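sorry for the late reply, my laptop died twice this morning and i had to redo everyting from scratch. anyway the thing you sent over, i finally got around to it. pasting the sequence first so we're on the same page, its 168 residues, then the predicted structure underneath. double check i copied it right bc i was rushing
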Amino acid sequence: MAATQRLPLPSQLGLVALLGSGLMLGAALFFQYVMGFPPCEMCHWQRWPHIVAMVAGLAAFASSGQPRLATWFMVIAIAAIAVTSAIGIFHAGVEYRWWAGPQSCTGTIPTGLSPEELKKHLFGAKMVRCDAIVWSLFGISMAGWNAILSAILAVGLASGLSRTARTR
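ok and here's the structure:
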């Protein structure tokens, strides 16, 4: 821990972004592969910004000799975490029926099928609905928790990064 304290603050924050988004993505993978909750399409949408934030956080951490470059990588990480939070808000709204979700989460049926082909398609379709809450804690779904925790992480990182700007 003492070694990381000698790094410039943007590089330290990069490590926080890497670990924070890594924990969020790890939790999603735990629920998918250990708990058996397959992700819907919007769940996948929320994972990509976490991956971007992890890469940008790692780049910020690795750019310790160039604090300005590390700062730019942190801006990318914070933006990505804010994006996943926004997607989480949208997804939670779909789950709680506050607004409609994308058509791809409710299924599409190809046109021009015979009754037998239609039956085969419908019974063979493996779709995970975006508007179904498969797990919740304190009445908040996984998408809601992603929105909340990602927003806290983004605000915390942005606050730390603004401290860097004030000290220059």
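The chain has a mean pLDDT of 86.
thats about all i looked at so far, will dig more tmrw
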